[in-house]
Specification:
Bound molecules: 2-phosphoglycolic acid
Number of helices: 11
Number of strands: 8
Oligomer: single chain
Structural class: alpha/beta
Strand content: 15-25%
Helix content: 40-55%
Radius of gyration: 17 Å
Length: about 250
Amino acid sequence: MSARVPLIAGNWKMNLEEWAAVELAGSIADGLPNGRADVVVCPPFPWLTPVSAVLEGSRVALGAQDCSDEPSGAYTGQVSATMLNGLCRFAIVGHSERRRDCCESDELVGRKANAALSAGMTPIACVGESLDVRDAGNAIAWVEAQVDAILAAIPGDAIGRIVIAYEPIWAIGTGRSASPDDAEEVASAIRARIAEADPAAAETVRILYGGSANAANAASYLDTPNIDGLLVGGASLKTDSFLEIVAAAG
Ligand code: PGA
């Protein structure tokens, strides 16, 4: 495990009714083990306010699952980073489900990361390859291009404030996780890429793994030198499994 403070992020996606989201947040806050990991949960937009009330005074931070790249205006259905900043410390940007379902390009994801930073939030910028890309031997080049687009869109002095989540698409929600060695290989390539832009920032940027992470496999990722945390979908929807993952982060 690296010296960087681990980050365990729960991505609740479009799940949970309001009462269930509030209950889950409360039980996570109540059961949080003493440890060094930063913990964040990312509920659906309408539940941010009720969940924030439950988390007040706890060590559990709040994150959004997306933000607009625009500050305000005629963008029906979008939510700006400045609107979220009062509630959220983090915003996931570029999740593969949004890249797929909302046609989000690398450039748009970069602008969203920049919008989150400008509003004072920490973007958790997601990158990751499809199975076709991996099978063709192009996973690292693919992910490097996604990282380059993020780095190109943010100010040089903000690189140290981002979080990158490596989430191979074929591992998300499939029960088929990447091996720790494969995930570490990509995480190490991401860090090297960041180092080309800013060697000091590369030492501090946290790189997460995501894709069927669970209580049984969490430690195997967290034990690698370049993976500093986990972005957890399915296993973040149950208090016990999420808290076991947090405990694995020490
Ligand atoms: P999963 O989702 O843990 O259910 O695979 C991870 C994610 O999409 O962030």
